[in-house]
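Exercise: predict the fold of this chain.
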Amino acid sequence: MIRVELPANLRTLANVGREVAVSVDGPVTQRALLDALEAAYPMLRGTIRDAVTQKRRPMLRFFACEEDLSDQPLDAPLPEEVAAGREPYLVVGAIAGG
């Protein structure tokens, strides 16, 4: 199982705790993980990434193993620590200000 930590607004929407676990069939990529997350929690469809383009929403960032994966290709493999469930995949709300 792959561990995913969600920001507070998405936890509220999905009615879950800070961390959820999802199973991914095949290679563990960001696309496969987000597909599994949206399948398990359909209310999150369109909130993390655009439903048509599949690009991440502008005010969200993705992290794993202390590395920003937000601009990595969706089909790039995730770190082994994430795939094995030892480290979580983080969906983080970006902070904006001015």
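Check your answer against the key: Helices lie at 8-14, 30-40, 80-83.
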